[in-house]
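pls design
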C-alpha cells in the first residue's frame, strides 16, 4: 500500500495494530505506534489509542501498554479494561487491581468486561474481600440478569478462593447458567478434592438438560482422582464416548493414570 504512495488512515492502523497483537509482532507494532504519533492521530481518536494499548498488552509488553495509556489525552473504560485484561492474562493480578483503582479514581464506572477481568484477578490471588465487594456492586447494578459470562466469573472467583458453598449459591441464583458456569463450580470441587460433590454437580447439571463438555468431564475426573473414586472415574471415562460423544484427550488419560495409580490398580486402565 505504502509502495503505491498511499497513506494509511486510522482504520488501516486499527487493523494492523490488531494483527500485530494477535501474532505478537511487537517490532512492527512499535513502528506503527511511532507513525501514528508522528501524525498526531492519537489526540482525538480514542479508538486508535485503545488499539495501541491493546497491541502492547497482547504482546505482553505491559509497561509499554500502561505508558501508552498514560500518554493518551482521552481515555475511557475500554482503555482501562484493555490494560487490566492484559495484566490478568499475563498473571499480574496485583497490577490489574491497582489499575482498576486508578480507573475508578478518574471517575470512570466499570462495565461488565472490567468486572469479569477483576474477578479473575481476585480469584487468582485469593483476594476474597475485594471479590465480595465487586460482587455487591455487580448485584446493585443488576448486571447479572442477562450476563452469563459475568455470573460465571463470580462462580469461578469464589471457587478459586475455596468458598465453594458461596460459589454454588451464586450459581443457583443465576437467571442463566450454562456448561461453563457449572464447570467453574466443578473445577472448584476438584481443586479441593471433593469428588462426591463434583459428581453431584454433574448430575444436577445434566438434570437441567445441560450436557458436559470435554472440560467439564476433565474436572470431574480430576476430582475423582483426588478423592480416590476409582469406580466412578472408570464409569465416567467409559460413557464419555458412548453418551457424550467426546473423544478422550491426553489430559483425560493422565487423570485416569492418576486414578488407577493411586489405587494401585494401574493395570485396570487397559482392561
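designed seq:
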Amino acid at each position: 500500500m505504502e509502495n503505491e504512495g498511499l497513506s494509511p488512515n486510522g482504520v488501516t492502523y486499527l487493523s494492523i495494530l490488531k494483527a500485530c497483537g494477535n501474532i505478537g509482532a511487537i517490532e512492527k507494532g512499535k513502528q506503527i505506534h511511532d507513525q501514528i504519533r508522528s501524525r498526531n492521530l492519537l489526540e482525538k481518536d480514542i479508538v486508535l489509542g485503545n488499539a495501541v494499548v491493546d497491541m502492547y498488552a497482547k504482546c505482553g509488553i505491559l509497561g509499554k501498554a500502561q505508558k501508552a495509556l498514560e500518554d493518551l489525552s482521552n481515555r475511557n473504560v475500554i482503555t482501562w479494561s484493555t490494560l487490566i485484561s492484559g495484566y490478568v492474562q499475563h498473571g499480574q493480578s496485583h497490577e490489574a487491581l491497582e489499575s482498576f483503582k486508578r480507573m475508578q479514581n478518574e471517575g470512570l464506572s466499570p462495565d461488565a468486561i472490567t468486572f469479569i477481568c477483576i474477578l479473575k484477578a481476585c480469584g487468582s490471588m485469593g483476594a476474597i474481600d475485594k471479590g465480595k465487594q465487586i460482587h455487591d456492586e455487580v448485584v446493585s447494578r443488576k448486571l447479572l440478569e442477562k450476563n452469563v459470562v459475568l455470573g460465571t466469573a463470580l462462580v469461578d472467583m469464589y471457587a478459586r478462593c475455596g468458598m465453594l458453598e458461596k460459589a454454588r449459591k451464586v450459581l443457583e441464583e443465576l437467571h442463566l447458567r450454562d456448561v461453563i458456569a457449572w464447570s467453574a463450580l466443578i473445577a472448584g470441587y476438584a481443586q479441593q478434592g471433593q469428588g462426591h460433590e463434583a459428581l453431584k454437580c454433574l448430575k444436577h447439571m445434566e438434570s437441567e438438560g445441560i450436557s458436559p463438555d470435554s472440560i467439564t468431564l476433565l474436572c470431574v475426573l480430576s476430582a475423582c482422582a483426588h478423592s480416590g473414586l476409582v469406580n466412578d472415574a472408570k464409569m465416567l471415562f467409559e460413557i464419555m464416548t458412548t453418551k457424550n460423544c467426546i473423544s478422550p484427550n491426553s489430559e483425560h488419560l493422565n487423570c485416569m493414570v492418576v486414578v488407577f495409580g493411586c489405587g494401585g490398580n494401574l493395570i485396570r486402565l487397559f482392561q
